[in-house]
Write a structure and sequence with these properties.
Elements lengths: L3 E4 L1 H9 L3 H8 L2 E3 L1 H7 L7 E3 L5 H7 L5 H12 L3 E4 L3 H9 L3 E3 L1 H10 L6 H10 L6 H10 L4
Parallel strand pairs: 1-4, 2-3, 4-5
């Protein structure tokens, strides 16, 4: 298990919107975000989410040439912390994070892990809630996830 779990904004927003932010805490216990992610979230940050600034602002600024400040800061913080896991959903941010050698997961990965740990009883219900809030999931991916967790 990674020592440090760093989240970008999207998973916080979408899980909060569907009333399931607690899944994140139950799966990972403590999450770290940057001040930029906190600002993008625009809600009250629970006490199990810690806010930490990026040390290497130059790296963050370079990443901001291609990404928004939340994604760029989360990736930069991941690069500063060995053995970290970055929670990021956006395709471009995921590709850059992977290219830079970071371990990544996304909102759907958190949900699958929640099911594996017995935190979630129905992944299908969570996916349906996500889709109601315009979290796009292709049918093939949805079927793959439901098969993986034994709900197909």
């Amino acid at each position: 298990m990674p020592k440090i779990i760093i989240a970008d904004t999207s998973c916080l927003i979408v899980l909060d919107q569907i009333g399931e932010l607690s899944i994140l805490e139950k799966v990972y216990t403590e999450i770290i975000i940057t001040p930029e992610v906190q600002q993008e979230f625009k809600g009250v940050i629970p006490d199990w989410i810690k806010v930490t600034s990026v040390t290497d602002k130059k790296r963050q600024n370079i990443l901001e040439l291609d990404l928004d400040s939340g994604e760029a800061s989360a990736i930069a913080l991941g690069l500063e912390n060995e053995n970290s896991l970055l929670i990021i959903d956006e395709k471009k941010g995921r590709a850059i994070a992977k290219k830079l050698g970071l371990r990544i997961t996304g909102t759907l990965g958190i949900i699958v892990k929640g099911k594996e740990l017995g935190i979630i009883s129905s992944v299908k219900e969570i996916l349906e809630k996500l889709e109601k809030f315009d979290f796009w999931i292709s049918e093939s991916l949805k079927n793959k996830i439901l098969t993986k967790v034994g709900e197909a």
